[in-house]
């Protein structure tokens, strides 16, 4: 394995950057995605997604964490080109989603955990695997992943998903990066932390995504007390709840002393939610609409902590 010394930096698709250079971070997005779980809602056009990302940049967000894992149309070369064109830092992920995204017979079910760990570690250290690339790649730049994703099902982590939690936790512990967990409708938070801890990953290296689908302040405070980051990533999705409820949830957690554990994103993982494809609310809804309201409610210092300090801390690669 080739290796620079990435400890203390954040790995982006264009190379390691100093954590202080990230600016405001949208901690959960998808820039190129294709999955059998969302038929007809895939998006993989570079020009359109660069336009969407440019809107995000204009809204004041400087870094996007791209949480599309292995096998879902992740495209390291396009991510790098989008980053070059827009000036947005892109932190790419390796890892695996929940079962719903992999058809029966997919290699993620078949390969032993040791092989899964090797796939992830290669993506994190040497550069992302060619299995998601769109054809032969002349560019020798090793586009490294900077974070690991794993996913569980609603109310339970299946046996197959548990194997991928083990692999993700081991690869992250080995390489010093953080893990983002897809918590379906905000469930399985405690179990996810338990499984990753069993794999050697401390809870303060874990981001629990979609917790705001179950906006329960006491549950979130308990997870934050264990050290986990609460990734609220349904900003703009008012079919789930009004934005005022999300602001109230954040205020509750800040008041309970957990302002250092909150992360924000929009996770607009469908074509129909992207303005570039004629949908809405658009990936820039966080910067254009939500953050001004949050600043009004909680003040700029709290929002700076959530948008700058917390993501910089969790995304920085740690030594062992
Ligand atoms: Zn997502």
Automatic annotation (TrEMBL):
The family this protein is said to belong to: Belongs to the metallo-dependent hydrolases superfamily. Phosphotriesterase family.
SUPFAM superfamilies: Metallo-dependent hydrolases
Obligatory cofactor(s): a divalent metal cation
Superkingdom per UniProt: Bacteria
Cofactor binding summary note: Binds 2 divalent metal cations per subunit.
Positions carrying N6-carboxylysine: 149
Protein name listed in UniProt: Phosphotriesterase-related protein
Recorded GO MF terms: hydrolase activity; zinc ion binding
Keyword Acetylation: no
UniProt cross-references to PROSITE patterns, sorted A to Z: PHOSPHOTRIESTERASE_2
Residues reported in the UniProt entry to bind Zn(2+) 2: 149, 182, 210
InterPro entries: Metal_Hydrolase, Phosphotriesterase
Entry binding sites for Zn(2+) 1: 28, 30, 149, 267
Keyword field: Hydrolase, Metal-binding
